[in-house]
Automatic annotation (TrEMBL):
The keyword Ribonucleoprotein does not apply. This is PLP-dependent aminotransferase family protein. It comes from Comamonas antarctica. It comes from the Bacteria. Residues 5-73 form the HTH gntR-type domain. SMART domains: HTH_GNTR (SM00345). It holds the Pfam family Aminotran_1_2.
């Protein structure tokens, strides 16, 4: 067959895509000319031309008498976020992609998860045989619409430790906290309705609201919680139905809601008929005695959303919500319609881990990691000239800025070339077009030696 310009380029691009996606690893031999000719229906000259193009692009190397081998190039995850894509950092999808980027070479200071070594004490590897042995008959069915009952019973005790009284009929298990948010939006918010959020706040939630067609109104976040004067003005003007708020370990600022503001916020909710959705994904990383709206309100005007992603594993995708029994029943029906059900296997896994004697020890170690990393990262950042939004004793997140840096996106672009990611502040804003000097850093990653070396550089940008 003759070589065609389109043919060899198409083949080269196909092979390059497979290499970058990890189908062929560094040092691995590509299929032979004969194999590709036979399997992909290309002529020999076309295949040779495609291989030569891959050599020119630095992706493969010829070895005399042995064929063509993949060179050691960027890890697969890196191709998802090239440097030029940072110009889209105001796009919420950028950081969502970063959260799902598994490049092991990158220093992911933008990460929203605890370092993997902090979670190793949960020992997921030791429980799967117990899950399979203990529920063989149920592992082939959809399970209860509320979720696995023994885990919901354990959550009654867990919530009780936070001062929230509930029974299993008030608890709905979900496919992560994000599904819980989806269900609340579908149930309570018609398209075009106004929804209140922390500003800065949780970028995943902003993306969900945009997809849902809601109007987003941001309430400025202060070191002790939402700006309540601003909130009341928005309540008077827009009469919204729902406010998504994070009381403890706020993402991205790391701030905690003060007890005084919590009480005043509930008074405003009562006065203006507002429902409060309290997101608490970091409950296991923070002291139980900190102010929570759901503990003060006892799920009368609050919906509590929790997760095991930050304390066990994001891969399990087990979250939950707690609310009134009537609402929980209707949300369970909605979950059945939209998603059929959450994963009972994953829920059984979480239930098994929570019953292990080592679980309490794991939580103590996890809180110790967070507190120690908070102290160390704060000192390292202060030595580098950082200014802090607030001063939590323990926080997975540090919300910082540097004098002379007006737009943290510039630093993000600079560091990405060094395989270090930071989360520029504009991603967490309701209006991402506004320049922000702030950035979110993961305290567990700031203490990494490569990140410390970056901090010692002058200038940073």
């Amino acid at each position: 067959m003759p070589t065609t310009v389109a043919g060899f380029k198409i083949l080269a691009e196909s092979l390059e895509r497979e290499i970058r996606q990890g189908a062929y690893k560094a040092g691995e031999k590509l299929p032979s000319l004969r194999e590709i000719t036979r399997e992909r229906a290309y002529g020999k000259n076309t295949v040779i031309a495609a291989f030569e193009l891959l050599v020119a692009r630095g992706l493969v190397e010829p070895r005399r008498g042995a064929g063509f081998y993949v060179k050691d190039i960027a890890a697969p995850g890196e191709a998802d976020t090239p440097v030029h894509a940072l110009g889209r950092a105001g796009d919420l999808v950028w950081l969502i992609r970063e959260q799902l980027n598994d490049n092991p070479q990158a220093i992911r200071a933008a990460d929203g998860m605890p370092p993997a070594e902090w979670l190793a004490g949960a020992r997921l590897d030791r429980v799967h045989h117990k899950v399979a042995r203990g529920g063989l008959g149920a592992l082939f069915s959809y399970g209860n619409r509320y979720g696995y009952l023994p885990l919901r019973q354990q959550l009654v005790r867990k919530l009780g430790g936070l001062g929230i009284e509930a029974d299993p009929r008030q608890i709905l298990l979900t496919h992560g906290a994000n599904q819980a948010m989806d269900l609340v939006l579908r149930y309570l918010i018609p398209p075009g309705a106004t929804v209140l959020v922390d500003d800065p706040g949780y970028y995943f939630l902003f993306a969900k609201l945009k997809v849902h067609g809601a109007e987003i109104a941001g309430i400025a976040r202060q070191p002790d919680g939402p700006d309540l004067d601003m909130l009341e003005q928005v309540l008077i003007r827009k009469r919204p139905r729902l406010f998504f708020v994070q009381s403890v370990g706020h993402n991205p600022t790391g701030s905690d809601l003060s007890a005084g503001k919590a009480r005043r916020l509930l008074e405003l909710a009562e006065k203006y008929n507002l429902l409060l959705v309290e997101m608490d994904p970091l409950a296991d990383l923070k002291p139980h005695e900190q102010a929570r709206l759901s503990a003060l309100d006892q799920l009368q005007r609050t919906i509590y959303i929790g997760s095991f992603s930050k304390s066990l594993s994001a891969a399990l995708r087990v979250g939950f919500l707690a609310c009134s029994a009537d609402m929980a029943s209707e949300l369970a029906d909605l979950k059945s319609i939209v998603h059929v059900n959450s994963s009972e296997y994953a829920e059984r896994t979480v239930d098994t881990i929570l019953r292990e004697r080592t679980y309490a020890k794991h939580l103590l170690a996890l809180k110790s990691h967070v507190a120690q990393a908070t102290r160390q990262s704060r000192q390292l950042l202060a030595d580098a000239g950082a200014r802090f939004f607030c001063d939590p004793q323990e926080s997975l997140y540090m919300w910082v800025r540097f004098d002379g840096l007006d737009d943290s996106l510039a630093l993000s672009e600079h560091l990405t070339a060094q395989q270090i990611t930071v989360a520029p502040g504009r991603i967490f804003q309701v209006d991402p077009s506004i320049t922000s000097p702030w950035m979110r850093l993961n305290s567990g990653i700031v203490v990494h030696e490569k990140f410390q070396a970056m901090l010692r550089q002058r200038p940073l940008w």
